[in-house]
Amino acid sequence: MAELSTVARPYAEALFAVARQDAAGLAAWADQVQQLADIAAVEDVRVAMADPRLEDAQRTSVFLSLVKPAPSAALQNFVALLVANDRLSLLGHIAEQFHALRDEAEGVAQADITSAFPMTEQQVSDLIKLLEPKFGLKLKPHVNVDASLIGGVRVQVGDHVLDTSVQAQLVRMRDTMAV
Length: 179
Hints:
Elements: H1 4-21, H2 26-40, H3 43-49, H4 56-65, H5 73-84, H6 91-105, E1 108-115, H7 121-135, E2 138-145, E3 153-157, E4 160-163, H8 166-178
Parallel strand pairs: 1-2
Antiparallel strand pairs: 1-3, 3-4
Helix pairs in contact: 1-6, 2-6, 4-5
């Protein structure tokens, strides 16, 4: 079976193409898509959507009744399409890919920062200011703490990793000495 993100990709791309042409803007669409994904992730909703006694139109109606405020006609049609193709469970993956497409279109990237110690907002801001020219993108930081790094930080932006942690330096020293 195909990986879920692979199956979700065409839906996310189609939704993104429609969103780009809407005057409401990508931010409004991103919020609505995230709301749909959050609703689809609720266990009771998943159970209700899997009820074999419901027709597709009923599933669509029940699902859309949970969305406040009511989504646009385009999003309602999108939900109906997902229900008809039994893909409503993919909404989380679709939302994730929609956000990635939005970030790419806006020249933004997610920066996963892992630090050995908690970082203040000022430290994160300073680090982002140093990294943005390096990557040529506006970065949105997501900070985690991992004491096993011993010191320093590891930053991942897409496929690129910048690892200045003490742990990485020790590994490099060990590998150099082993040769």
